[in-house]
Amino acid sequence: MMSTAASCLVFLTMKSFEEVELCFPELLNSSCRKAVHPHSVSMLTYILLSSISLLTVTLNLLVIISISHFKQLHTPTNLLLLSLAVSDFFVGFLVCFQIVLIDGCWFFGDLVCVLYQYLGYIITSTSVGTMVLISVDRYVAICDPLHYPNKVTQKRVKICVCLCWICSVFLDSLLLKDNLEQPGRYNSCFGECVFVINYIAGLADVFLTFIGPVTVIIVLYMRVFVVAVSQARAMRSHTAAFSLKCSVSVTAKKSELKAARTLGVVVVVFLMCICPYFCVSLTGQDTLLNASSAAFVICLFYFNSCLNPVIYAFFYPWFRKSIRLIVTLKILQPGSCETNML
Q: Per the structure, how many domains does the chain have?
């Protein structure tokens, strides 16, 4: 979906500005035309996208190193966050290609173009799938806490994450089959990076990548919210009467509720960032978007990958502590993986 948005932005931008230069002057009539932007707009766009790319790669790399290195962080929930960080990490690199497309020209050839589109689809599908898994994880943790340790294990989470990535690769391979078999088949001129999927495949993609997962996420988190509120009220009314043993149980429940709140913020921000693009695509973006609004929707889509680590930094003390250990290179010391992070 990110590559769909990218192609849409290029198309709209090319229509919105006066085209005065060729992408490949030596090819004359067979070359695509560049879109000329005001210098201030171009600089602002370059700075914005470059900043998003750099922050996304750096922050998500910190999350990946943190969860991978410290053994105490190898929990089922954190493994899901690791999968999300990996997909967000790749988004940072995809933004680099979007920067190249600002002037409406693609200089890397048809093969790299289709790989760029393919990777964008895989990352989007995997991110949505991981959000569904996070919602299921919090649903079981809050609504069935006694059986959570038995139902949600590291092994099962690893299997689910692997299946999420494998299914994304398989389904997107079917979706982009024609584009993968013959890269550039839909390009009308040299310097263009477009793709086309048939109507039925497009509907299937919207349902599997947006409507279905978003429905599941909302239903699960509504249930989690109701149960979390009732548990919080129960704990407030009975805390004073609990013994030391029960206090440990209360602390554990508070920890689960805090995790649910934090991951709830992650899910809500994710939906806020992806919904504008999908909603516009469902209603026909060609008629509703101009160049500037298309750029806003796409930047918002990309910016979500940068926001997740920022949310962790605000809500997770272990992430702030791990950043300090990574930046000061203390993780290179022998036995650092055994550090107490909680």
A: 1
